[in-house]
Amino acid sequence: PTTQTCFYHSWYLAVDMQLFLFSAVLVFWYQQNRIHGIRATAVFWLLSLTITAYLAAVRHWSINTFDGAAVARYDVEAYSKPHIRAQSYLTGVFVAMILPPNILERRSLFTWSHRFIQLLCLAGMLVVSFLSCMGAYAKRACQYQEWPNESDCGSDWSETENWVFAAISRTVWCTAIGTLLHLFLGRPDSCSAVSCILSWRCWAPLSRLSFAAYLIHPIVILIWKLGNTEKEVFSPITFGMSFISVCVVSYLAALIATLFVEMPASNLWKVYSTRKVERKTAAPWKPLQHPLQVNPHHRYGAINA
Length: 305
Hints:
Elements: H1 11-32, H2 34-58, H3 69-77, H4 82-98, H5 103-106, H6 112-130, H7 159-184, H8 193-198, H9 203-226, H10 236-281, H11 291-294, H12 299-304
Helix pairs in contact: 1-2, 1-4, 2-4, 2-7, 4-7, 6-7, 9-10
């Protein structure tokens, strides 16, 4: 279980690998029959959504941080499980499947209807991001053994509101991201606000450090927060500065890890794999033969004769 690991957030490596292997089956299905592959991906996406909604209702999940036992149960039973996170992964697979094969030749220009859909997607992402702030932190935080509906703690949300939000918040977010990707990818001469920002060159080096920063940033937080000896008082400015500080330190540490660990290991693997391919493709070695064995009428042979 993830609660007994020494490097807790590395659970994502296992989940990502499981979903990657499963998606390979869908891609093979898609290559055999395009329509069947798309339909199968959609069915598994709906199955993941249905399982999430059912378990959220039956197990009384909550994703509001102050809800004590409800959010603790969600953290253990849902947060790091592949069948719950499959929606996000399958959304990307589905978008890739429905894009036209010759994407640059068959897509129209970016129109006002596309801009309207873009605004709807961004609005949905904002609602999902900030809806939990409405009444979610109205009372004191529950202890891990306390339930918000049994004690005077946690959010003001009902059980129904909690499980519905826990069930569909990820669905709304990944659907909006998938729709934006489908809008932007391969569309000629389109430069909406979002696509222009995502096209900035500064994201390329940061993207190469993103996974290392993900692995390192909890360590930065733990060293910083667990080393504090004074009581903290929340304020938006303090929270914002903490966020910026953790990001900067995490990316600096990720840069060091990339330069001294990831890149050397990657280069060694490239050298090994290249030499392995060269050995397989090289002509078989043959021992050198004496000129008389190659050509008995060689001039040396004539002299000796």
